[in-house]
């Protein structure tokens, strides 16, 4: 907040100017706020500040195991670069990458960056730090990307090789299982079920190589099964 201050706004072309007059009663400090683009703050008795970058969008989408980030600026004045920062809690930020900016432009400019996640399935936050040629900087709004990595799913068989009863271990959600089947090497289905089985007695099958397939909603998991000769 500020007291005994006058704030005027003027738009010339694509550049937005703020004229701020602040009395000495408040130590010459004006506290800026968050807009649709970058945050701004300044200090002084009387100053005119030209916002160096007009950010019109900053978005991110999930694609497989990475986040595709993109942003656009409507104009730039003496801009040096952007620093992309990431947080998993929204408070502690870490450096991701430095992206050089156009510098000076009176037209739309687009940027993009693909951020590979750290292998965890969790929400991520991103923000941009826009740095001018003179070292001043401003932060963008914060965007949130929901968890977009598929959790690691383990499907295993033991004992393997076997001669009789076999056990199956699956650490996923059993309600996601659409089918459970055992096939021979030429693809013939020898056993099938519409739910996950924790164990089976396959002593009736001859020795050889088989495949156990677990069908989920959007993909399937397959393990090789070897049945040994009981003799």
What can you see in these coordinates?
The structure is a single chain. Residues 1-36 and 39-49 have low confidence and may be disordered. The protein is mainly β. Strands 8, 9, 11, 12 and 13 form a five-stranded antiparallel β-sheet that branches. The chain has a four-stranded antiparallel β-sheet with strand order 17-16-19-20, with no helix packed on it. A three-stranded antiparallel β-sheet has the order 1-2-5, with no helix packed on it. The N and C termini lie far apart (88 Å). It has strands at residues 5-12, 15-22, 29-30, 42-43, 46-50, 53-63, 66-76, 79-87, 94-100, 109-116, 124-132, 137-139, 143-145, 155-158, 165-170, 179-184, 189-193, 199-201, 208-215, 220-227. It folds into three domains: 5-50, no CATH class; 53-145, Sandwich (Immunoglobulin-like); 155-227, Immunoglobulin-like (Sandwich).
Instruction: Report strand %.
Output: over 45%
Total beta strands: 20
- Number of helical segments with 4 or more residues: 0
Q: From N to C, what is the helix and strand string?
A: EEEEEEEEEEEEEEEEEEEE
Radius of gyration over alpha carbons?
A: 30 Å
Give the end-to-end Cα distance, rounded to a whole number of Å. 88 Å
Q: Quick one: biggest sheet? A: 5 strands, antiparallel
> Given this structure, which CATH class of the largest domain is correct?
Mainly Beta
State the low-pLDDT regions, or none: 1-36, 39-49
How many independent structural domains? Answer: 3
Q: What value does the average pLDDT take?
A: 76
Structural class: mainly beta
CATH topology of the largest domain: Immunoglobulin-like
